[in-house]
Design brief:
The structure is a homotetramer of 249-residue chains. The first copy, chain A, has six helices and eight strands. Chain A is an alpha/beta fold and 249 residues long. In chain A, strands 3-2-1-4-5-6 form a six-stranded parallel β-sheet, sandwiched between helices. In chain A, strand 4, helix 4 and strand 5 form a beta-alpha-beta unit. In chain A, helix 3 (61-74) packs parallel to helix 4 (102-127). Chains in contact: A-B, A-D, B-C, C-D. The interface between C and D is large, with 45 and 45 residues.
Chain lengths: 249, 249, 249, 249
């Protein structure tokens, strides 16, 4: 096992779990942070892949500060940090702007964009102390994003604001930190993320499709994240939009 | 004088004052909202152009709600609302992300992007009740923005986030409200805004230039705002980026 | 009448005719160039508005060279040049790329993008000799474009290539010539252009609409062109996308 | 060795050679097409990696048609086609638009954008007959592009037009062909491409840098091309911009 440490912030069963498994299989020590780290999907990751779980409300500065100190102490300074919280919550889609709740909108901005800032700031502080690795970099900060990052859709004002604020964060940090050796990138997923149903089958969106290809497969998204982390600083990508072959765009 | 009412939120001596003067000269009743409505530049607008002043902290839902009720009662429902607060504040430029203050960043998001939402939401509510005007629309909502809306620059993470959140808001609202007759647009100014110095001359950024053309002239910006308001719904522009001829982009 | 001269290249009954009428009404001497300058719509423009007609195949260097020399000699050096040829032709829409005819594609590129270069190059040469006008500029070069300039749609490869080549031309020329005093801009029209039917009524695309607002009105597009020409160099727009209120985007 | 066949169009010592080596090492049969297939770099690829060389002027429809028939006959139908001709030629940079030679500009458009169309059209025709592979696709068409695809720079009008025409092609084909199982993508390289000097060292652009990281390393670009080819259709990227860590953008 290498000495590499990855920290994934956001503990869902989709991209976060897929990243945790893939990173662990590639010899990286993995920490995962979630509000409720004791949920079954994360317990399974610990049991099967040695993933370390941390409790953290990523929209609270003190929590994020404590998280990074704990990870650095217990596993080592991370060289790969993934922010995987997009702020989707009930009530923010199909929501006319005239009826939008300002308090909910403020919460979405805080949970998604503000937490991305907090996590990336702590990540940058630690990574700047890393030694330069074989790929010429000191570390990688990745933001999961959505197609709303590229295009603000109707009836989802809060989500559009949060996703585009996250893009502003990623762009600004990339321009500042890439010349200092930190690879900053975002991955807008222009699709619903597939998930495994209780019967073990994959959910599909389109009737009549018989393979899992009209939703983005989180295992394959995770591959792109690892590829981004392994890219040499000679050729860094800032943004990779992923969409299924049948998606309209 | 027509029965048209315009509300400008943000009370600076640049774009807001230029808009107030131009709108008033074109027969529109003008209200201007600012945290400190008693400052001299606004008093002059009232004296010279009949502009009505309102006190409002545009990042507070109750304040914004009260503002629109007051304007509707005292002047009539607005058909033109300009949000002209960009959240620039000391400490957010030339500010390494590792040293950025989370509290300041949260305040910038609130003052700029969140207030834009609050203002535009109230504007939309009132405008949907307007009758359709000669240009085929029920009203116009305009957001002043900056080049950071298009490109997140290094060392200004908070500003990049706020400007792009505002873009997300504008895009989402435009896609929702334009088919309902409300023209939503943003005007990113890719320049410093010119201002008049105490000796009456204009500030310049570039040595050796002898005319006022390396900064954006707020009087000319205001012309674009009025043109956007007058556009027929057959041909609505969503975004007009303005920059001086000598600006690099 | 001022001494201003405008040259419109492309002689259709939509944007070109609307521009000719509007420019003439604003005291500008107008020349219009078309392959077949003797068609009725152009004869009417001459009769009603004094527009001068010139024969020109705008995709032939010699023709374009001769055109500008003729216009300069007969009317004076233009300070406003509009390229209004978009290369639409039968067979380039709903055309699978596997069935596209290379010769047709080459012709579309030549008629649209290459002719835009030829026209803009000659325009730039003459305008650089102009004196600086009241708006601080030496002249304005405008390109009509389409939504394919922003997004290459399926089944229309030739059109996507031509429109985006034209965007590349406009961007490159704008960055080079704006600091020399020439305002270069493009206006992508994200709509069908309305036209007047034989019975005098306007064509509509959407059933059930009773006003002319689901197609772009060329008279209103022409207003934007004149506004762009009048913009002061303190605040130049490079691109204004126009779309009707009901258009999806 | 698999039965996979790759065709690389463009025979330079940079990306084309790197792709040929990497694809061959991964068990893919590789064909490379160039105007002068007998140059040493290609002879070496044949000798060391079994790469098959084909003579082709990729801007001539008949040549491109013959190329694909020869490759299909001799190696099999390709499932990976790379168009790697960007049309750079002497005289198109630092070239004021007023002095640009129309004939040279037409040649650049033909050599770069038109050849990209010819190659991609033939590739699509053959790939549509392929069986669906393990990654869910029938094949991959990749276009090398440059930063001018994203931004038309001053003093390089011909290059801006050609690069953006190629983007239009790639977008239109992607929207048409991805739902048919063909992965279409472009890779704009925002950098000079590194190359090996006669003394075996790598060229550098920036004084004082001691590692090869201020130019894009073609071996690492080739990795991204292979990753794109291997992506599952559940998560296809259309565009990956690659730039070195020290590049301004």
């Amino acid at each position: 096992m290498s000495n590499e440490v990855a920290l994934i912030v956001g503990g869902g069963p989709g991209i976060s779990a897929s990243c945790a498994r893939l990173f662990a299989r590639n010899g990286i020590k993995v920490a995962i942070a979630a509000r409720t780290p004791d949920k079954p999907v994360l317990a399974t990751l610990e049991k099967d892949h040695g993933v370390r779980r941390f409790a953290c409300n990523a929209s609270e500065p003190e929590d994020v500060d404590r998280l990074f100190r704990s990870v650095a102490t217990e596993l080592g300074r991370p060289s790969l940090v993934v922010h995987n919280i997009d702020g989707r919550s009930p009530g923010i889609f199909r929501n006319p702007v005239t009826e939008a709740d300002p308090a909910l909108l403020a919460a979405v901005l805080k949970n998604s964009a503000f937490s991305a800032f907090l996590v990336a700031q702590q990540a940058a502080r630690l990574m700047l102390e890393n030694e330069t690795a074989a790929n010429g970099g000191k570390g990688t900060i990745l933001f999961t994003n959505a197609s709303a990052a590229l295009k603000g859709f109707a009836l989802s004002t809060a989500f559009a604001m949060a996703c585009q604020a996250k893009t502003g964060l990623a762009q600004s940090m990339a321009r500042e930190l890439m010349p200092k050796g930190i690879h900053v990138a975002q991955v807008p997923i222009d699709a619903a993320i597939g998930f495994t149903q209780d019967d073990g089958s994959r959910a599909h969106r389109l009737a009549g499709t018989t393979v899992d290809d009209n939703m983005a497969d989180p295992d394959r998204i995770a591959e792109v994240y690892l590829q981004l982390h392994r890219q040499h600083r000679s050729t860094w990508a800032f943004e990779i939009v992923l969409r299924p072959w049948l998606e309209k765009w």
